[in-house]
Write a structure and sequence with these properties.
CATH architecture of the largest domain in chain B: 3-Layer(aba) Sandwich
CATH class of the largest domain in chain B: Alpha Beta
Oligomer: heterodimer
Distance between the termini of chain B: 74 Å
Helix content of chain B: 25-40%
Order of helices and strands of chain A: HHHHEHHEHEHEHEEHEEHEHHHHHH
CATH class of the largest domain in chain A: Alpha Beta
CATH architecture of the largest domain in chain A: 3-Layer(aba) Sandwich
Shape of chain B: globular
Number of domains of chain A: 3
CATH topology of the largest domain in chain B: Rossmann fold
Structural class of chain B: alpha/beta
Radius of gyration of chain B: 29 Å
Largest interface: A-B, 29 and 35 residues
Number of domains of chain B: 4
Largest sheet of chain A: 5 strands, mixed
Radius of gyration of chain A: 21 Å
Largest sheet of chain B: 7 strands, mixed
Number of helices of chain A: 17
CATH superfamily of the largest domain in chain A: NADH-ubiquinone oxidoreductase 51kDa subunit
Chain lengths: 404, 878
Amino acid sequence: MMLLRDAKTLDAYVSSGGFSSLKKALRMKQSEVIKEISVSGLVGRGGAEFPTGLKMKFVAQNLSTPKYVIANADEGEPGTFKDRVLMERNPYQILEGMIIAAYAVGARKGFFYIRHEYRKIAREIEKEIDELYSEGYLGSNILGSKFSFDIELVIGAGSYVCGEETALMESIEGKRGFPRIKPPYPAQRGLWGKPTLINNVETLANLPLIIELGSKRYTELGTHLCPGPKLFSVSGFVKNPGVYEEILGKITVRELIERAGGAEGNLKAIMIGGGAAGYIVDKSFLSMPLCYHHARERGIFLGTGDIIVLNDEVNLWKVLLQIAKFFEHESCGQCFPCRYGTKRMRELIEKILRGEGKRRDIERLDAIANALKIASLCPLGSSAALAYESAMEYHRDELMEVIS
Amino acid sequence: MITITINGKSIAANPGETILQAARRNGVEIPALCLMMEDRPIGSCGLCVVKILREDRTSYVRACTTKVEDGMLIETHPPEIEEARKTILELLAEEHEVGGELQALLDRYGINVERREVIREEWPENPFIFFNPKACISCFRCVQTCGEIKENHVLVRRGRGARIEIVAGVNDSLKDAGCAFCGACIDACPTGALIEKTAIRAKGPLKKVTTICPYCGVGCAIDYFVQGNRIVYARGNPEGVNRGDDCLKGRFGWEFVHSEERLKRPLIKRDGKFVEVSWDEALDYVAQRLREIREKYGADSIAGLSSAKCTNEENYLFQKFMRTVIGTNNVDHCARLCHASTVVGLFKVFGSGAMTNSIEDLMTSEVFFVIGSNTTHAHPVIGTLIKRAVKRGAKLIVADPRNIELARYATIHLRHRPGTDVALINGMMHVIVKYRLADYKFVEERTEGFEKLKEVVEKYTPERVERITGVPRDDIIRAAILYATHRSAIIYAMGITQHTSGTANVASLANLALLTGNVGKEGSGVNPLRGQNNVQGAGDMGALPNLLPGYVRLDAPYADEIERIWGTKIPREPGLTVVEMMHAALKGKIKAMYIMGENPAVSDPDRSRVIESLKNLEFLVVQDLFLSETAQLADVVLPAASSLEKEGTFTNTERRVQLLRRVIEPVGEAKPDWWIITQLANRMGASWSYGSPKDIFEEIRKVVPQYRGITYKRIEKLGIQWPCTDEEHPGTPILHVDRFPTPTGLARFAPYEYKPPAEESDEEYPYILTTGRTYEHFHTGTLTRKMEGFNELMPEAFVEISSDDAEKLGIKNGDCVVVESRRGAIRVKAKISKIKKGVVFIPFHFAESAANTLTLDALDPEAKIPELKVAAVRLKRC
């Protein structure tokens, strides 16, 4: 286990080699650190799959100062709980990754943004940050180097959209969590208009690994298309739901479900990518290797790495209703397509569940899904259509049974 | 230039512009509902989405937010986007009542869906703005306007998802949320959800007439929308000096013209009662009485008050009437009470007594030094400009004992004791000289008298100044350094001028600007803000007892030239100023007065004595819109047309001569002042043949050198700033760029020592009273207090008092308080605020609790301006 090792105390973490990567990084040039990460092929683990090294390069190259680093621990996706487990079991690796990232891009200040539902963990993280200060891993002249870095903990206020990077920054700035229009991207103008590196906590936890192993050995871990370890949240109708760490590309969907004890009942559908912003696919995906590349080839994304198993007792319209309700509730209201589209979707699905569904309701749902995808201001709106569209693609017959 | 392809057509685009800008410039129409500021797109509506084709992928982006890139391939109307637009519009139409721009879009997309009943909360009541929640699509244009454009931050978004809505504050009433009622949100609204209450029931075509606002000296151009002879609503004109900005008074303050209380026929007082008479009877009677009095007591027994609310043409005629028809220089106007010391003080130092720079120019200032000006309340459009500049990085120094709105935006707030301005400014100059922060090159090349200044300011150490002013020494040093090291503009108003040391205050500010080279350059200068729409012009036109039109001295050689143009003799003895006239009337030396558009019974200091003086006259003629407190004392009252009912020109605070257009016909038999003066003159032996204000202006151009190049035709669109010496001259946005209008071409430092105000607080009267204007009312309230909405917002006078003082006196917020000075007492409501301890403030609009009952008429020795800003008072609960 490279991410999920148990190192709940600083002593345990250091004695198992913790912070040796930071020491190593501080002896490297900043550009060398970024190069290592670029070559490693690491992509963001929060769902967007953007190359981490490239993001760091953009921030490093930006001449504007000060620069900021943000750890995104606003894990709000239904069915995703891998960050929680990671923070509980191996928090220092995330913080070490954050410090390395800050060193690489030239940031002096970082924010650890965590959702308020995780406030128990937040209290722990706060203690751990304090500990790092007293041990010289944070603050001025870290480990005797010329590099100084501070981390401040920020607790969110319970909005799903604040996991979106620009809404999250608004939230840190003390404003209402409305997503910003991109571009400019955070690397150009992020927190308080300054270049900002924002990464999911799992992504950050990968950085010490890459520095420790070297990019070459790190890439050899996975396949050449999908390097590195990944945490998967497995839930739904499985015997042993939980977080599983796997090497990308080395295991199929079926194998992962088996590791979680196999399906309960007859597996009918799998939700991949997220419990809301994910895809509802069919059994044909069981043989798909869990790798970003293979998923894209099949027209989906691995997203945060969720696998939710649905058996044949599940009514897919009811699943879609839950998802629609979720998005309607979490829509920030900023843009028209999402604000009204999510509401109308929920209403139409309710109508269908009442047994009053007509063909033109399906046409309307299709039109709304199209508008959401094309014209939403942030990914929340565009992902609100994913579950419906994929379910229609892979389970059309079943869904259309109730339509007259 | 870069090249992009829109819908298969290659187009040259400017780097940095958005796809929407490039497309629209090339005639490609992309729908957009939420765009307000092109440089800060909101992006809420999603209608402007376009498709970008790249080799590896296609993407959909908002055209309003995405910048063009070289080689970009753009499709603006592919079927999937048109479908999405249709869907969005359908959703909108289902949820809302539609109107305005949205209705036009629905028509274009052929959308006709059934609206469902969606319940949305209405706003709490307010006097001016109607809000229809059902029509509000929460596009946030109003929110952006209120926040980022007007810097008011009253309208905010509440709720989320489809339940998002726009509210004021935490769903307060607009008034409680601090709304400025500037109306910019109405202009921003694309659906008609926000509209003026007066415009709700307007049907049929409206006529638009653009003229100049009747209130303060900013001189905003306002578009009035008219039906029949009634104004329906008004909006700031985007081409004016205000660039479309507006304030409460400009936007909603026109209703007085339709007031039932307007004077519609001439009145003569018989047996103590006014009776309506014909114009002929009234004019004949006035001419006869004035002739009689002149014959009996001499021409200098008659005095006239001209008006900063009347046009240049009318002021010009009024002083010409007094000088050549009556034969006296006893003519003055309310500038005596506001900016007489500006004219004298700036003239002394710079050789010219007007605002040195322009309103637009102020946007380039790095530092604003605002002293004695509650800009956001008294000159709101300039106040907004300052707030906006500060939000974009400019620094602000505010010197004011009150916690005025601008203080919230200030880098440094100097809360000095009223009447200690000279000490404060000398203290700043002391620091600048001591730290060698002066602009020595400028001092060397463009000024004289520096050594004398140095000698005076030497004594004003920050420690000593702290003792005099109550401002901490460090703040004095910080302010001096900040001001001296930037491109800094001084902005001031009555807090500087209305003192016995008014001229000294003004000259000291001019010294400060000279010392640091902050004159004659963009974004700098000494900028008095004039309080009335035409106070600049009234002075320019020579409605002054010692100066002829164009500020020509009575003994100057050019006065002979004016005599030649007029074809009559001009008396050469300077006449009496406003306050001197009142004193003379009380003593029986002035027997008759002709007062045009002024209300000295409320506006002048020690008003009980003013009323006594006016009552002591043998004959009083008042020409006004309303039966003002002064008019009630008159023997004859002549009904005048308002500025919205006539033509002419106003000169705004930045010396810009602007053209008035007639918005409606005068009510009743009211007549323009220029007509009335001409009629009177001709009945008293003159043979004036002015047929229109334009005829008069042509004569003004001959007499006043600064106006020579200005014609009605040239100022049809936008006014010209004097001096403008010939018809090719573009006007002068910044004064003193190369030389000063002095005999040597150099500016002259005029240092002053600090002298305490005429009356200081003592054991008997322990508080210092200072007076001023509120945002909601204007001057003596003759106009604003005729309007219900304004009275609703600000129904009565108040006394601002610090919480410490209130506690000491056992006064609670809202208590009735007796404020008493050596001259009289009034009752007002207490308003506990963050005003400086020991200082209280009362606005002067309210005749029933008139602040000027308390003030004293001690005068500045040079400018004869009374000290309206400092009086000793005591307070107790009623």
